[in-house]
Structures are given as structure tokens and as C-alpha cells.
Write a structure and sequence with these properties.
Two copies of one chain form a homodimer.
Chain A: H1 7-22, H2 26-42, H3 49-64, H4 71-93, H5 98-108, H6 122-131, E1 134-137, H7 139-146, E2 151-155, H8 161-175, E3 180-186, H9 196-202, E4 210-215, H10 229-236, E5 240-244, H11 245-251, E6 258-263, H12 267-273, E7 280-285
Parallel strand pairs in A: 1-7, 2-3, 2-5, 3-4, 5-6
Antiparallel strand pairs in A: 6-7
Helix pairs in contact in A: 1-2, 1-3, 2-3, 4-5, 4-8, 5-6, 5-8
Chain lengths: 286, 286
């Protein structure tokens, strides 16, 4: 996906939010914002949104001398989802279509995103998404594809959200013959994206036959890029591939054979999908 | 009110929206965004938000060669409110407390604001605001102050919204002994702020004993600034003073004896008022 001009002010907003997470020093906030704005003005606007996002968050990390500005926020998100987990689990179990409910909740969890969003209410979102109509709904294809699937590749998105993903995978395990689950996490911190640490914290590793693959956070040595041949091979090697969130939708858009589960949270992604901001999506890309 | 760092990305978003209203040329969008970002980087961040907003919108006007980029949008807003007017009027008339309902609707109309907002749904907002709890509620003071009031000064905010203001003033006229109404409008176009043209279009001049005062849009010769001695005198000379919206709340904050009616639509204003984004406010400043 090409950069949209809307991303330019949005990145500045993100940088400001990130520096505020770790410091109350207004002079530092201003310094970060000015350097980010300057960098964006000098950058090549033919880059992809994640490429520029990496540049932006690199500035935040450098000027604040903090390798993971979202550390506290990620822990809070993980904790709130762990707290909600028993209730969510019960909602799925008691549902007339547990998989459908688990899919809905996994999309609701996608609201935990400090990239496009300033703030959100997780419990309200979960309630709304359980009733909401899908703007794109390839659920039937999902139920077909899972029938003979033995391996699942799951691209996670954000900390906290991965608790909802755990519930979805648990539900899939009950409904299918899946023998191997591979979760893709970030090989290092970037925004509030889930890392291996978060996956362990919310108990993804407690699932049966689970493995973790690391993908690049934009820094060297953290894993392959989303648009790499390695990631393409990962996708090909699995029977079922699920991708969560906007960042993966952007970054994995040139691959085929994936289910994209997400909430459209910014006008750029919404317009690419032909939906409205706030819409929920279960899209199969053949 | 001092500039908040959040205003910096927000102004860029506004400029982008404005140029898109009048042109589909992506190269022009990019040129405007770049020039606005550059200007903001060079500007004095101790300015007030309206001062910087004027700089930003001046760039849009210059590069697009269009003195009023929001012209079409303002007409659309005026038209939709005129269409809703009979229903709104009935809602007020049939209400157990017509003035309270008219105040609520006037605040709902404040959603028509292309400054902080990307998009909005007017009818949904009106429905919600009719039931919503006020975050600051000086209604009792309003009912006291109107008892002996003979003159009203009313600072309007946006095109379209002034249709709701008309309904509020009509309702006030029935409940009071008001003999003279003065509406303050912008002396020239800026964002989607109401000008005399809009006031005439929605029929504000059909009210009894009405006059119009023009206030600066940031350009020379369009009227006094909000923080001027002239505006201070206007306020002193009237028994009842009502100010609509965020811009007036920011700009008139150093004056006393006003009722501020608004919806908090951006985190900067919400935090200054000690409320949440989306909250509705009827605040008397003694």
C-alpha cells in the first residue's frame, strides 16, 4: 500500500502520543514533534506507511533514550484482556456459533491500537462488535478452509489484542483438526505491536503445539520483512493463514491465500477496503 | 488559550481536508501539505491556535487561488439544517422544557465543524445530544439571567449550525422580553465559520429586531479580533451573551459574563474544560 497524505499528520500525532507515554517534559515533546515533522518533510513520500512509521518511531526512541516507549501501555493492555478473559471465554462457549463469536471478539480486540487511535474503550467495543454487521464477510470461506486445515499461521497485531487471538485459536482448535499453530510476533518493540514477551505474558504458549516466528520491527536483525520471500514461503507452507489488523493488511497485501481480520480504524485503510471507519472486516484474499 | 502540540498535526489534517474540498489534484494536495508543515515548523509555537489556523488557511487559499475553500460545504450544511428545521422546531415546541431542548439542539448543531472533525452525522448527533448528560451545566444560571435581559449578543460559530442557533433564539424570544438581538458573524471566510451570507441564507435576519456585527477572520479589515477592546465593549453592552463553539471558547476566554455553549470536539479543548471529547457544555463564565 502506498502512503496516503493523511498519514503525514497522523505520524506526528503518534510520535507525540509515544513521547507522552514516557515523559511529562513538554520541551522534549516539542523536540520530538519538530524532529519528526522535519524528517517527514525530507522523506520520500513514495514509501509505504510502515516504512515511514519506523523512521518516526526511531526518532522517538532515540530522543527519549527509551527502546520501548509503549512498554507500560502494552502491559496495561495485556492485563485488562487477561482480566476480561474468563467472561469472553464464557461468551464464546455459550454462543450458538462459538467460532463466529470468537472471530467477532478477535476483531473487537483489534481496537487496542495506539497507532491510529488516541483512545478507545475495550469493553464497549467488544459489546458493539458482537452485534455489528460485517462490512466484508468471508466467514463461509473460513468455515470451508478450516475443514481440512492441519497447520495455522497467525500474524498477530497488538499487545492485549493477542489475548482475544488466543481465544480465537482455542476455539479453532476445538472445531478443527489443527495440529500445528505458528504465531508471528514482532522481533522487537514497535508501537504497541505484540512481541514474544507479550505472547508469553498472555499465555499464547500454553496452547497445544504452538510455535513462534519473529518478523521485522523495522530494525536490522529482528526478522524478515512482511513483503519478503521468507514470509511468502511461511504463508505457502500453512493450510490456514490469518492476519490481524491494519499494519498486517498493509504489509501483507501482496501475498495471497490469507484471511484478514481487522477493524478499519483510519480513513486510509477504510478507503482501500471500500468500507467506513469503524467497520469490521473478515476478508479472504484468494 | 495557548497552543497545544496536538494542534500541529491537526492543522495539517485541516489543510489537507480544505484543499481536497476544491481539487482532486494529488500534486496540489501534497504541495499544500508540505508548505503548511514547513510554515508550522517555522512558526512561533507560543501563538494561539486561531492565530496559527489563520496562517494555515491563508496558505490553502493562496495555493489553491480560492478565497473560500469551504464555500460548497457551507452551503450543504446550511441546506441540510434548513431541511431539518421544521422537525427540530416541532421537537422544541412539544418539549416539556422548550428552552432546554433548544439549548441541547444548539449544542448538537456545533458538531458541524470542519476544523477538528473529519466527518460527522448531524441527525445521529441531534438524537444523542437530546438525551445526553451535560458535563458542565449552568442552565439554572441561564434561566435566571434571561429573566430581565433586554439585549442579546450571540457569537455564532459555523455555517449550518446557525440554523440551530436561530431556533434557540426564536425560543428565547418567546420566553423572554428580549428587544434587541445582535449576532456576531465572521467578516470574511475562514474554515466553515458562518459569515453574513450564511446568516442571510438560513434566515437569521427574519427574526425580530436583529442586527449583525462582523468579527475578524484573521485578515485585515474584516472586523475586530476576539480579544480586542471593541469585542470586550460589545460584551459589556449586552444583558445576555452567548458564545457558540470551540473557536469562540478559545478566543473569548479572557472576557467575562458569557455563556459558552459547545461540544468538546478535540482533546485540547476537552482538557482545558476538564471534560471528555464528545461532552456537551453549557458553561457560564462569571
Amino acid at each position: 500500500m502506498k502512503l496516503n497524505l493523511d498519514c503525514i499528520p497522523c505520524f506526528q500525532r503518534q510520535a507525540l502520543q509515544a513521547v507522552r507515554f514516557i515523559s511529562d517534559d513538554e520541551a522534549l515533546h516539542q523536540k520530538v514533534l519538530k524532529e519528526v515533522a522535519k524528517k517527514l518533510l525530507e522523506s520520500n513520500w513514495d514509501s509505504t506507511p510502515p516504512e515511514l512509521a519506523h523512521e518516526v518511531h526511531r526518532i522517538v526512541k532515540r530522543l527519549t533514550n527509551e527502546s520501548d516507549p509503549y512498554k507500560e501501555v502494552k502491559k496495561e493492555s495485556n492485563d485488562s484482556v487477561l482480566k476480561m478473559y474468563p467472561v469472553l471465554q464464557k461468551q464464546v462457549e455459550e454462543s450458538s456459533d462459538p467460532l463466529r463469536t470468537a472471530v467477532r471478539l478477535a476483531i473487537a480486540g483489534n481496537i487496542i491500537d495506539f497507532g491510529p487511535l488516541q483512545s478507545f474503550n475495550l469493553e464497549d467495543t467488544a459489546r458493539e462488535v458482537l452485534k455489528k454487521q460485517f462490512a466484508i464477510d468471508d466467514y463461509e470461506t473460513l468455515t470451508e478452509k478450516i475443514e481440512d486445515a492441519e497447520t495455522l499461521l497467525f500474524f498477530t497485531d497488538n499487545a492485549g489484542e493477542i489475548g482475544f487471538d488466543k481465544l480465537l485459536v482455542e476455539t479453532l482448535l476445538k472445531a478443527t483438526n489443527l495440529e500445528k499453530i505458528r504465531f508471528v510476533v514482532k522481533g522487537g518493540p514497535i508501537i504497541n505491536d505484540a512481541t514474544l514477551e507479550d505472547a508469553v505474558y498472555v499465555g499464547l504458549c500454553d496452547l497445544a503445539n504452538v510455535e513462534f516466528l519473529k518478523m521485522s520491527n523495522g530494525e536490522a536483525g529482528t526478522g524478515p520483512e512482511r513483503n519478503s520471500q521468507t514470509v511468502k514461503n511461511w504463508i505457502k507452507e500453512h493450510d490456514l493463514v490469518i492476519s490481524k489488523g491494519q499494519g498486517n493488511y498493509e504489509g501483507l497485501s501482496e501475498h495471497n491465500g490469507l484471511f484478514f481480520l481487522l477493524m478499519a480504524k483510519c480513513p486510509v485503510i477504510a478507503s482501500d477496503l471500500g468500507v467506513e471507519v469503524g467497520d469490521i472486516i473478515l476478508k479472504y484474499k484468494q
